[in-house]
Write a structure and sequence with these properties.
Layout (H helix, E strand, L loop, with lengths): L1 E2 L2 H12 L6 E8 L6 H9 L10 E4 L9 E4 L5 H4 E5 L6 H13 L9 E9 L3 E9 L5 H11 L22 H28 L1 H18 L19 E9 H11 L3 H19 L10 E7 L13 E7 L7 H17 L2 H12 L4 H11 L9 E7 L6 E2 L2 E9 L8 E8 L2 E9 L6 H20 L3
Parallel strand pairs: 5-6, 9-11, 11-14
Antiparallel strand pairs: 1-4, 2-7, 2-13, 3-4, 6-7, 8-15, 9-10, 12-13, 14-15
Length: 463
């Protein structure tokens, strides 16, 4: 039995408080060659299960929120339940695949089972097939979720042998046992806190630095408490999702970065800003300076921690300059604002609070969170997450992986979200929208595509 971290538990609690929202993360892996048979597909996944223990564990919640949810072995684990197979209608292009993805991601995962599904999709144009991986956000973040491709797939067409597997499920604890253990931990919590404080005092210099950075970060984050300019980007969500994507080249992003400065993330967020400007204008709305505040997840994993299946992210809240018409000026402002956020220690504050929360009694965390989930949220209107994908070419049963299309879930009042992922020489912008309130996500996606193309053109002619 493993206890969830407070950050992992937050994604589960968020879904509890929004019964029509699914907080699963996902991506589509597209392969060349004929699709594997059902038996080949099942054997591939079965041979990797020992490397992902969470895939044979389910969530148990502790009564009265006395402790965080826990992971327990599923005594009735059934691999076949988690493996789905579907065929696209002709012609099997991007439009048909996007429609399927929207339907798959609209459904919530069954809480009585391990929180993942793999969908094998046949009938893609060009003799290709796809794998949709759907995993709850309480299990993985973008980095650890993407790392699952390294675990599941091979780095050569020859493949590798299945992992030895002697797994036997542990006994599932009773509700009474879960409650008793949670109470015991609550009683011992002051002792754990004293040990934490003593350890911090032994490292007084580092502790003082963390306190300083956290204070600066919280001061910076306090600015987002003011509501963003009202727009159609925020509001109630339905249960259904739309999805689309646009492709670009890593080389183009690097061309802009070399010519205009900044980071890879600066360039792609400048393109996202251009997309939202296009969307607002197409809707007949004025793109104000404070119309689009986006969550920007920040990876806080140490090198080598990519395969740890949990959430290790902090965040920044960035104002996208959708009011700026000039693409170069827009890029410069994105770069300056992200630099300021880094100086302001927003992500460090979030990381410190997450670490502190791990030592607090869970009831003190869950009650305010559940209350806050019912309060109106008007300060953030979207999420834009940029995750580096696998660096090497990967294979499934000898078939090469040709592209990965990322999906980010939306919740609260965020009617759209953008996920950016690189694989090989390609970068893909995946755009999620609420089915009822964001029927025009293709306008946003085309706007991102056009904004990046403008930057590439101007980067080639800086004068």
């Amino acid at each position: 039995m493993d206890r969830m971290t407070p950050l992992d538990a937050a994604f589960l609690l968020a879904e509890d408080e929004e019964p029509e929202v699914s907080l699963a993360i996902s991506s589509i892996a597209v392969f060349d060659g004929p699709p594997p048979s059902a038996a080949e597909f099942a054997a591939l996944i079965a041979g990797r299960l020992p490397l992902v223990p969470r895939y044979r564990q389910k969530v148990r919640e502790v009564p009265f929120d006395l402790g965080p949810p826990v992971w327990v072995d599923d005594e009735h684990f059934d691999l076949d339940y988690h493996l789905r197979r579907v065929a696209l209608p002709s012609p099997g292009g991007d439009e048909e695949l996007a429609e399927l993805m929207g339907r798959v991601m609209s459904a919530r995962l069954d809480r009585s089972r391990p929180l993942w599904e793999y969908w094998l999709v046949e009938g893609l144009a060009g003799g290709r097939w796809a794998l949709i991986s759907k995993v709850h956000h309480c299990m993985v973040d973008g980095v650890s979720g993407t790392d699952l491709y390294r675990v599941l797939l091979d780095d050569s067409p020859r493949g590798r042998a299945a992992e030895p597997d002697d797994w036997r499920p542990g006994h599932e604890p009773s509700t009474a046992a879960l409650a008793t253990e949670a109470v015991r931990r609550l009683v011992l919590n002051p002792v754990a806190q004293m040990r934490m404080l003593a350890g911090a005092l032994r490292r007084a210099g580092r502790f003082a630095g963390v306190v300083r950075d956290t204070a600066f970060g919280l001061l910076a984050l306090s600015s987002v408490l003011q509501p963003a300019n009202a727009s159609s980007l925020s509001g109630p969500l339905s249960a259904q999702r739309r999805f689309t994507w646009r492709r670009a080249s890593v080389a183009d992003v690097k061309t802009v970065r070399r010519a205009l400065g900044g980071t890879f993330n600066d360039v792609v967020l400048a393109a996202v800003a251009g997309g939202f400007r296009t969307l607002l204008r197409d809707r007949g709305e004025v793109p104000h300076a404070d119309s689009v505040r986006t969550l920007v997840p920040v990876n806080i994993r140490a090198p080598g921690e990519e395969s740890i299946r949990d959430n290790r992210v902090s965040l920044m809240v960035a104002r996208l300059p959708v009011d700026i018409a000039n693409p170069v000026a827009r890029h410069a402002l994105v770069r300056n604002r992200l630099d300021a956020l880094k100086i302001g220690k927003e992500s460090e504050a979030g990381a410190a609070l997450a670490e502190l929360a791990a030592h607090e009694p869970f009831p003190l965390l869950s009650a305010p969170f559940r209350l806050a989930a019912h309060l109106p949220q008007r300060s953030v209107v979207t999420v834009a997450t940029n995750v580096p994908g696998p660096r090497r070419r990967l294979y499934a049963l000898g078939r090469p992986l040709v592209e990965i299309i990322p999906y980010v879930p939306i919740a609260s009042t965020l009617r759209t979200g953008v996920s950016i992922l690189t694989y090989g020489d390609q970068v893909v912008f995946g755009v999620t929208g609420d089915y009822a309130a964001a029927a025009d996500i293709d306008v946003l996606a085309d706007g991102i595509d056009h904004a990046l193309a403008e930057l590439v053109t101007l980067a080639g002619h800086p004068g």
